[in-house]
Model the fold of this input.
Amino acid sequence: MKQKGVLAIVSGFAGSGKGTLMKLLLERHDNYALSVSATTRQPREGEQDGREYFFKTKEEFEEMIRENAFLEYASYVGNYYGTPRFYVEEQLAAGRDVILEIEIQGALKVKEMIPESVLIFVTPPDAEELQKRLVGRGTETEEVVRARLRRAVEEAEEMASYDYILVNDDLEETTGQLHAIVQSARFATERQTAFAETIKKSLAELTAGFA
Ligand code: 5GP
Done:
């Protein structure tokens, strides 16, 4: 039987560099599938429908909620964000490691539903660096930057609920660390119960006839 893929959930402060990290991870390794979320926020310049997000109206999004089309969804700084269920389930079943790049409320919901999923929190080395990256991105108004920084204060409280915290100082190094975490999750005992049962049984059978 093909082993199911690992469901890895990556969260982090806006400006932690997690988007770039995901891009590099996918470029370097071909066992990953990145889930594309749906959102009601406006596309940023350069973003394409179906690539960064599926851009939806509030009505369309709420219709998807009613149809149970989301694995999880949450409201973040005034907009809905949600993970379409079908793609994630299909890719995991095919043995690919699926990455969800989602915020904390959604991450904790998924962990509750799927306890063997791996929660990884990405953070820049310090608060000043975070502010610098957010401002430097230049795609947000000052008001939005402030809202995101205030949100980061709340998010910092939740970091402890994650399985891993990755300090993203050097992008290359962090990409390697992220890959190592996900790959080691493949061998976690809770994912190997079927194998453990099989070998226990065959060992018992093998030794049953021993004097
Ligand atoms: P942004 O607007 O900067 O693209 O994303 C804002 C936040 O929403 C980020 O923390 C991002 O990880 C999160 N996010 C993106 N997609 C989803 C999703 O499907 N579900 C949840 N819960 N959060 C998401």
Summary: The chain is about 45% helix and 20% strand. The helical segments are 18-28, 58-66, 85-93, 104-113, 127-137, 142-158, 171-185, 193-208.
